[in-house]
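Per your request, structure below.
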């Protein structure tokens, strides 16, 4: 009997322990899903404050990190498990990092896997997924690829900029992306820079006309845009950058010029509600921007009132002063950068932030400020909600119409000795490296980081656009020269991005261009038929030695996938509208001259800023 009672007591005690353990586990589960505890009537500010009070320092450190997604082709970034374990705040696909299959479904699946991983972290805070959609959703196969920014500056049409931004956001939304590392709003000085085509030209007033509508359009469909690169990236001095050239070099800018020409563009982006600002790799007056606390913390955040989050560029912490990685991270965070784009060293970054806090080198106020900004943006674009993705609808009639209009309006007619417009009954020779190549038309940041020649995505080449509209014969070989009425020569640069696009001599057959450009120009310079040259380039390559042999010159920049827009204007279905967004140098010595230069004389240059003919004044 006594033995039975003992067994009964043990059973009761065991049952009690089971219930107690179950209750503790349930409580723990409830604690690890804190989103359930936030009253629904709270404002965004109140919700963010709640998070700041309840997150651990480890969870806060994770929110401040953006890692690249790991792949099987050499990128050792974050896996979904890493996102969960480190509470990572963001994941990105760098240029050319794309899922397999590279289609809408592939992107959706990838984005959802990472989102679900973030929701299973101890904080349960969703990631914000970032991508470089700098002229359309350009890493996605068969997306609509718009002209690069330099062509849009030539068009200078605010309504068109909004439409391009909105169409880009629409195609991004289909794939589950929510953070766009665009727009680049820098102004340029030296035309040898490889990123000339990413800018809005050399006149800040043109940029100011376009920034608001572009940011507004890009932030449609629950997107966050990123104004970049803060600040002065396009004003670097030749010889101070990578390989002794321009990219990531030092910009020498006076206080007056900084406040009159450069900062107002970011003020315009802030007024438009831009959610993120990316810091430049370059230096400003010999101080690396990623460690320039006064400009980021004081000028940008306090004086200019920027409320979004500040993000570093890809591995830019490497260039910051410090004897080891931990010190570099501490310096970067204290400079005012809220989210650190550390694609592969995310774990080291995580531990460096925590160590910096524990050692007293990073204040809790600085960490709370960073996390508050990141969470505010996530709430503002609806990431805490279950978002419905648009159905797959790439390259729809609206997007293609906008892209074709953008090509038409970006074209600049620089010379016309009665060679244009074309007559649709004329027989034509269409030739040159840029005449029949979607990859060349689109330039860098297309499918891959650097871009590449060839049929890399859907679209219409310049040759195909001409063939679609003419009733005459179109030939593509010099052997048929005697059969044609006019010759169209499409000169081109190789697709390139960042410092790979720097050109020390701006030559037609230099570091970034094709030898074929020179060979064909020489071969065609003495013909007795009108020669029409179209430039498919990201920068103004020197033409001074050849201009007298050219009857008509059209600057097409990098028009993207809709080459039929070029034919629309060549055949005069539409007139030319574009104006040159930079000074076209006559000599290499003028490469860094701009219309902002004191005593600027337009007659000194091959073509001055703002130049552009129309059919009725050519």
């Amino acid at each position: 009997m006594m033995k039975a009672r003992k067994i009964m007591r043990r059973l009761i005690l065991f049952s009690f322990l089971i219930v107690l353990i179950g209750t503790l586990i349930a409580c723990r589960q409830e604690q690890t899903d804190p989103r359930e505890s936030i009253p629904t009537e709270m404002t965004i500010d109140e919700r963010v404050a709640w998070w700041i009070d309840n997150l651990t320092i480890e969870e806060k450190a994770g929110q401040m990190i953006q890692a690249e997604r790991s792949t099987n082709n050499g990128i050792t970034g974050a896996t979904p498990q890493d996102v969960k374990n480190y509470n990572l705040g963001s994941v990105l696909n760098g240029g050319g990092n794309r899922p397999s299959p590279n289609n809408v479904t592939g992107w959706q699946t990838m984005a959802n896997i990472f989102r679900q991983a973030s929701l299973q972290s101890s904080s349960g805070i969703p990631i914000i997924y970032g991508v470089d959609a700098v002229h359309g959703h350009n890493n996605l196969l068969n997306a609509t690829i718009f002209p690069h920014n330099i062509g849009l500056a030539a068009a200078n049409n605010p309504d068109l900029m909004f439409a391009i931004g909105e169409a880009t956001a629409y195609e991004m939304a289909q794939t589950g992306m929510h953070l766009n590392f665009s727009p680049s709003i820098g102004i340029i000085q030296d035309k040898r820079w490889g990123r000339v085509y990413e800018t809005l030209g050399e006149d800040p007033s043109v940029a100011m006309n376009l920034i608001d509508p572009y940011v507004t359009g890009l932030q449609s469909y629950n997107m966050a845009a990123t104004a970049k690169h803060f600040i002065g990236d396009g004003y670097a001095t030749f010889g101070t950058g990578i390989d002794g050239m321009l990219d990531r070099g030092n910009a020498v800018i006076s206080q007056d010029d900084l406040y009159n020409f450069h900062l107002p563009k970011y003020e315009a982006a802030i007024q438009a509600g831009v959610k993120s600002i990316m810091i430049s790799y370059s230096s400003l007056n010999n101080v690396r921007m990623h460690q320039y606390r006064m400009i980021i913390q004081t000028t940008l955040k306090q004086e200019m009132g920027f409320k979004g989050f500040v993000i570093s560029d890809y591995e830019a912490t490497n260039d910051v002063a410090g004897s080891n990685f931990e010190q570099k991270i501490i310096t970067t965070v204290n400079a005012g950068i809220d989210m650190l784009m550390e694609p592969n060293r995310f774990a080291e970054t995580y531990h460096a932030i925590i160590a910096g806090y524990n050692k007293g080198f990073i204040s809790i106020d600085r960490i709370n400020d960073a996390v508050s900004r990141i969470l505010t943006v996530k709430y503002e674009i609806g990431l805490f909600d279950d978002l419905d993705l648009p159905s797959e609808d790439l390259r729809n009639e609206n997007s293609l119409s906008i892209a074709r209009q953008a090509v038409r309006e970006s074209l600049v007619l620089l010379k016309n000795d009665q060679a244009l417009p074309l007559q649709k009954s004329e027989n034509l020779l269409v030739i040159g490296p840029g005449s029949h190549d979607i990859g060349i038309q689109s330039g860098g940041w297309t499918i891959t980081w650097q871009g590449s020649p060839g049929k890399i995505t859907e679209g219409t080449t310049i040759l195909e656009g001409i063939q679609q509209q003419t009733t005459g014969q179109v030939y593509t070989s010099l052997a048929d020269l005697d059969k044609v009425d006019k010759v169209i020569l499409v000169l081109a640069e190789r697709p390139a991005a960042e410092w790979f696009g720097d050109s020390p001599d701006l030559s037609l057959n230099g570091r970034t261009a094709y030898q074929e450009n020179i060979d064909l120009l020489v071969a065609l310079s003495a013909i007795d038929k009108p020669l029409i040259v179209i430039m498919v380039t990201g920068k103004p390559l020197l033409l001074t030695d050849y201009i007298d042999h050219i009857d008509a010159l059209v600057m097409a920049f990098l028009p993207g996938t809709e080459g039929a827009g070029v034919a629309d204007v060549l055949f005069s279905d539409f007139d030319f509208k574009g104006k040159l967004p930079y000074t076209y140098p006559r000599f290499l010595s003028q490469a860094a001259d701009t219309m902002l230069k004191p005593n600027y004389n337009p007659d000194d240059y091959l073509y001055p800023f703002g130049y552009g003919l129309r059919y009725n004044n050519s």
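The radius of gyration is 27 Å.

Regards,
D.
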